[in-house]
Amino acid sequence: MRIPNILMMMAASLCLFTGGVASEEVKIDENLTIHYEQAGSGDTTIIFIPGWMMSTEVFEHQLAHFKGSTKYRALAYDPRGQGKSSKSVEGHTYQHHARDLAQLIDKLDLKNVILAGWSYGVTEQLAYLNQFGADKLKAMIMIDTGPDIAGATRDEWVWYLNDDSDGYSRWFTEGIIEDRDNVIAEFSKWMLEKPTPEKIAWITKIANCTSSSVASITNATGFYLDYSEDLSALEGKLPLLYVIRDEMKEAAGKWITANTPSATVVYMGKHMMFWERPKEFNRVLDEFLASIDSK
Fold first, then answer.
1. 265-290 burial string, b = 16+ CB within 10 Å, else e?
2. pTM for this structure?
């Protein structure tokens, strides 16, 4: 009995998760191997990008939804430093993460790509757009984050205030190092409509595969990013879908109406609505995909 128990402990420490879809990895360079999971086998690939400290696991319901599909390939990956991807020392900015994404797309020879980022994953996909353009993109899906991370007031669609007068940015940047357990627990509660102890423990397990220093760097460098011009430039050129938490309807709606008025916009739940409301979210996703195919 001792050997299995030891193996189980080793697996937990190495963040070896299990799932119901194909688990793969691709070597980007000598310092980076990216872990990804995929389902389906269509010509169009939907790439789900997790947020801060998160992994492919959060998209389990979306991957399951496309299991067996011959029209769409659903793929979720762990950015460097997160989940089961390499824990590299350098490269922890969203511009660099976007270059990793570009290499992942090239390594897998993907052509018709729909990027679907969540939270800071949106920042990652917009950093890709900023550096590599939309030539390989078929559509973009933004899940609960806008193109600008910091703004002058809370009336804007942003995460942080420019002067950090509410201490929110500092809490995530310094707090994740000084008070890690509390930051993860409180952030987990905030993301969920029904934050049960089991759900918080599950999110914590995922977050614990990212070091505090990497989490601090990615949050701190994200503070300065604004891809509003890049996203606005897609208006009328690429199908766009926003899925936004209910409480941000006014702020997000104002920006979207002014900058990408032809986009599809849906409001539901809280920050992890795609995980807590998978049927509702996946129905919205299917309807968006159908609208693209009908054009």
1. bbbbbbbbbbbbbbeebbebbeebbe
2. 0.92
